[in-house]
């Protein structure tokens, strides 16, 4: 099979298109013929060695955890799926080596859900990691109908989905973003506020009594969070471990088939969409990484592996 690999930690130019043996499919796994994968910042951070103390990487490594594709084979004791099923997965394993930037990937069923019928292949591939990150943090924070939720980095890959999920939970959503993204956030159902000096005051103008929930997807905003949080409010971050010292939750997304299926169901109910910024061919994965590293992408970056 064709696959993107890297043989050592490095920058996007470390990536190369190679030919590898097809992966084995073990018990409790499905072999997925990849239609689309998506790029997340964690992918190039792992490749750069920034998570070396957290995750084991065995070289040569295939990057990528998000996938949308068709079941090609099933392993032993895998009654949940059959050959030909269209699926998505946050196919993260306990170590980094056999990722989704390849024509085939073996994924544990605990990471897999049915592909949303209303989303195309690239939108579907962009859903798992970002969707689960937003979904799991908002649910851990007990977000409920009537809450006012502040989403930091609301126009980012995770924030866009958090806005929609919080709205579906019945919350009012305030989202921080650059002014160029304010119209987009209004379309998503959020009330936008601009980054920068005076952010806490701008949020307080919209919510004089404070906000009930703060979901931080950017980091470095703990002082603002504390300044706008209502008494008894809840807050969490995926990017700032200091939140625990301030009574918040430090979150790390985990594969969960039931949570992922809930997201797919929201998409099929017309309550969740995944904006796709750009699609790259498999052999152009390095260009996709470079675009992701700019930090100025609204929506997901997809890798088209097959048609």
TrEMBL record:
It comes from the Bacteria. Residues 10-303 form the Enoyl reductase (ER) domain. Keywords: Oxidoreductase. GO terms for molecular function: oxidoreductase activity; zinc ion binding. InterPro entries: ADH-like_N, ER, GroES-like_sf, NAD(P)-bd_dom_sf, Quin_OxRdtase/zeta-crystal_CS, YIM1/Zinc_Alcohol_DH_Fams. This is Oxidoreductase.
């Amino acid at each position: 099979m064709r696959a993107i690999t890297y043989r050592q930690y490095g920058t996007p130019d470390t990536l190369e298109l190679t030919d590898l043996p097809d992966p084995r499919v073990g018990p409790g796994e499905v072999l997925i013929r990849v239609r689309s994968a998506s790029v997340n910042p964690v992918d190039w951070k792992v490749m750069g060695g920034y998570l070396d103390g957290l995750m084991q990487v065995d070289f040569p490594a295939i990057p990528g955890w998000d996938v949308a594709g068709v079941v090609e084979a099933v392993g032993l004791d895998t009654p949940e799926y059959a050959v030909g099923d269209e699926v998505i997965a946050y196919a993260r394993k306990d170590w980094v080596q056999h990722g989704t930037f390849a024509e085939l990937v073996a994924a544990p069923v605990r990471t897999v859900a049915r592909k949303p019928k209303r989303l195309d292949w690239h939108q579907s591939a962009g859903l798992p990691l970002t969707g689960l990150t937003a979904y799991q943090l908002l649910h851990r924070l007990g977000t409920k109908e009537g809450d006012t939720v502040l989403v930091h980095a609301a126009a980012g890959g995770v924030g866009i989905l958090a806005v929609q999920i919080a709205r579906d939970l019945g919350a009012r959503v305030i989202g921080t973003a650059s002014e160029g993204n304010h119209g987009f956030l209004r379309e998503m159902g959020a009330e936008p506020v601009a980054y920068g000096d005076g952010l806490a005051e701008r949020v307080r103008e919209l919510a004089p009594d404070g906000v009930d929930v703060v979901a931080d997807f950017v980091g470095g905003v703990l002082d603002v969070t504390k300044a706008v949080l209502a008494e008894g409010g809840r807050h969490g971050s995926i990017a700032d471990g200091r939140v625990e010292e301030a009574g918040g939750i430090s979150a790390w997304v985990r594969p969960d088939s039931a949570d992922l299926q809930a997201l797919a169901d929201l998409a099929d109910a017309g309550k969740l969409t995944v904006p796709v910024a750009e699609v790259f061919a498999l052999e152009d994965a390095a260009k996709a990484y470079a675009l992701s590293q700019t930090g100025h992408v609204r929506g997901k970056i997809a890798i088209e592996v097959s048609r």
